[in-house]
Amino acid sequence: MEGKRIRPEYSATAEGAHTKAEAILRRKILEYENAGTVFKPQEITLQDFLSFWMQEYVDLKLEPNTYYNYEGVINNHIFALPR
Question: With bands split at pLDDT 50, 70 and 90, how would you rate the model's confidence at 79?
Answer without folding.
Answer: confident
